[in-house]
């Protein structure tokens, strides 16, 4: 099985190292240094954070190499970068650059409306977004070594990330009580390979780490998705679009560690300024949703 | 239930950030009992401690923020600690690339990201006291120098990758992600003897 060979174990291994941590979106070297100083376990190098991509519109592509290289040179923690869904040449370029993880991301404008990147062919590991178990398992089958909820990036609204993590956890639980012949039927419903469906049924969890992203803006948001089953969090616009990036970054790092400890969460929530402005998802036109990208 | 689990002294796994859950499972496979440690009170309740893999800068930051740095140093003066990868970096006396603070509980100099980035990560067989053992290296550090008291238990490409100094143990790779349970078993025995 592909998902137990040595190359895949190494990819999943790095994801294991990020558990309990916060991966922060940064757009330049100064942001990257602030993130590292605040305790980020990795950074996502971008040209624009999702809130700005949303506002400015146009085609969002892989970031300029100069920006990513600059950030790689500035920090000692892992550096991730995004490629458009299905854009395997952008991925080859980032692999040649030596980034530590690639996010095949719905935040960028998709390059292919039917296919995702064949990720097992790469030496660099990939993370992909998912809204439900079927999507998660299809991405793992393609070679993703880490799954994150899609949430709704750049919205500052946690409701979609909550929906997605709850859906994935619930669908996993349901598989654990099914018999063999029912699993074959579920594999068909989920449009996912039977061997992955059987793995989840047996273990009650994905064969790769399961993180959360898309709308996390406060320490309480981070702790919420972790209590619901996420093993680490990505924070995009939530830090550098707030009034107090460094303090907020530190507070979210603390919340990701002490997500079950209300006293520590209170400490993390004190003396923070304004969170990023949020968007009401139900009032957004369907065409502006990022989470529906990916197949 | 793993045979032997729950017998003997409790081993803590520092759970601020990193692959602490993989260590908990490895300790159980090795016949020990593991608990997560996030506070000074939880630290006081264990007989030995594992510093897991993860990001050493993140752990260092939280150790200071949560006032665990000094208690941990003091714990190490009395009880066994086993560090893997980021944990080995925290245990060392000197850290390079870049220079950063550490607990200084083992007389060793460690260079961070010694082999390069993630694409240079590897799974290889190392020589573990004369026998081959699978070692998972992920953005691993390199031990550049060890003191006279250190015993080199494992080597890869001439560099020490598993060292023991008195009550402490450090690996630059991740035995918790490998198939060989001997190293965790060795630590469980060390904790039992020290308790």
Write the layout of secondary structure elements.
The complex is a heterodimer of chains A (295) and B (195).
Chain A: H1 6-17, E1 22-26, H2 29-38, E2 42-45, H3 50-56, H4 65-74, E3 79-84, H5 88-97, E4 101-105, E5 126-130, H6 133-142, E6 146-149, H7 159-175, H8 180-190, H9 194-203, E7 210-211, H10 219-227, E8 233-235, H11 237-240, H12 245-257, H13 262-269
Parallel strand pairs in A: 1-2, 1-8, 2-3, 3-4, 4-5, 5-6, 6-7
Chain B: E1 10-14, H1 20-29, E2 33-37, H2 40-44, E3 48-51, H3 56-65, H4 69-76, E4 81-84, H5 86-91, E5 92-96, E6 106-111, E7 122-128, E8 131-137, E9 142-146, E10 151-156, E11 159-165, E12 168-171, H6 182-194
Parallel strand pairs in B: 1-2, 1-3, 3-4, 4-12, 5-6
Antiparallel strand pairs in B: 6-9, 7-8, 7-10, 10-11, 11-12
How is this structure best described in words?
The complex is a heterodimer of chains A (295) and B (195). By secondary structure, chain A is α/β, with parallel strands linked by helices. Chain A is 44% helix and 12% strand. Chain A contains 13 helices and eight strands. The longest helix of chain A is centred in the middle third of the chain and has 17 residues, at 159-175. The two termini of chain A are 23 Å apart. Chain B has 195 residues and is an alpha/beta fold. In chain B, a hairpin with a 2-residue loop joins strand 11 (159-165) and strand 12. The interface between A and B is large, with 36 and 36 residues.
Q: How does CATH name the architecture of chain B?
A: 3-Layer(aba) Sandwich
Number of strands of chain B: 12
What is the class of chain B in the CATH system?
A: Alpha Beta
Structure annotation, total helices of chain B: 6
**In percent, how much strand structure appears in the residues of chain B?**
25-35%
Give the helix proportion of chain B (percent range). 25-40%
Structural class of chain A, please? Answer: alpha/beta
Distance between the termini of chain B: 24 Å
* Proportion of strand residues of chain A: 5-15%
The unreliable regions of chain A are none
Q: What is the SS-derived class of chain B?
A: alpha/beta
The assembly state of the depicted protein chains is heterodimer
Largest sheet of chain B: 9 strands, mixed
Question: What is the number of helical segments of chain A per DSSP (H or I, 4+ residues)?
Answer: 13
Read across the widest sheet of chain A, the strand sequence of neighbours is: 7-6-5-4-3-2-1-8
Order of helices and strands of chain B: EHEHEHHEHEEEEEEEEH
Summed over residues and divided by their number, the pLDDT of chain B gives a mean of 95
């Amino acid at each position: 099985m592909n998902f137990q060979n040595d190359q895949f174990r190494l990819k999943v291994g790095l994801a294991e190292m990020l558990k309990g941590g916060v991966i922060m979106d940064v757009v330049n070297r100064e942001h990257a240094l602030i993130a590292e100083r605040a305790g980020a376990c990795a950074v996502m190098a971008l040209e624009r954070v999702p809130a700005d991509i949303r506002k400015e519109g146009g085609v969002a592509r892989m970031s300029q190499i100069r920006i990513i290289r600059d950030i790689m040179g500035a920090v000692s923690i892992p550096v991730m970068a995004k490629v458009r869904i299905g854009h395997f040449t952008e991925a080859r370029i980032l692999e040649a650059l030596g980034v530590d993880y690639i996010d095949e991301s719905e935040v960028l404008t998709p390059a292919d409306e039917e296919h995702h990147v064949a990720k097992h062919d790469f030496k660099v590991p990939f993370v992909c977004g998912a809204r439900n178990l079927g999507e998660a398992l299809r991405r793992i089958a393609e070679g993703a070594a880490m799954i994150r909820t899609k949430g709704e990036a750049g919205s500052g609204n946690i409701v979609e990330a909550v929906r997605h993590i709850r859906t994935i956890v619930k669908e996993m639980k349901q598989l654990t009580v099914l018999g063999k012949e029912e699993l074959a039927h579920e594999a068909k419903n989920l449009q996912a390979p039977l061997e992955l469906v059987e793995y989840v049924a047996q273990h009650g969890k994905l064969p790769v780490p399961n993180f959360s992203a898309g709308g996390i803006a406060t320490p309480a948001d981070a702790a919420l998705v972790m209590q619901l089953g996420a093993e680490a969090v990505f924070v995009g616009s939530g830090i550098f679009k707030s009034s107090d990036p460094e303090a907020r970054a530190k507070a979210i790092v603390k919340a990701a560690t002490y997500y079950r400890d209300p006293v520590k969460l209170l400490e993390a929530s004190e003396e923070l300024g304004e969170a990023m402005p949020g968007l009401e998802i139900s009032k957004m036109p369907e065409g502006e949703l990022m989470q529906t990208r990916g197949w | 239930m793993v045979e032997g689990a729950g017998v003997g002294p409790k081993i803590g796994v520092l759970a601020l950030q990193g692959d602490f859950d993989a260590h908990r499972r490895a300790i159980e496979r090795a016949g020990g009992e593991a608990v997560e440690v996030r506070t000074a009170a939880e630290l006081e309740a264990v007989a030995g401690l594992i510093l897991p893999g993860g990001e050493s800068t993140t752990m260092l930051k939280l150790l200071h923020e949560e006032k665990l740095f000094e208690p941990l140093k003091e714990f190490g003066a009395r009880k066994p600690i086993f560090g893997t990868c980021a944990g080995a970096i925290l245990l060392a006396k000197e850290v390079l690339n870049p220079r950063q603070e550490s607990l200084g509980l083992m007389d060793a100099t460690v260079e961070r990201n010694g082999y390069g980035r993630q694409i240079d990560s590897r799974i290889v067989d190392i020589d573990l006291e004369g026998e081959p053992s699978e070692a998972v290296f992920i953005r691993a550090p390199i031990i550049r120098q060890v003191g006279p008291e250190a015993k080199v238990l494992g080597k890869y490409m001439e560099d020490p990758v598993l060292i023991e100094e008195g009550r402490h143990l450090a690996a630059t790779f991740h035995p918790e992600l490998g198939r060989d349970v001997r190293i965790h078993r060795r630590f469980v025995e060390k904790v039992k003897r020290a308790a």
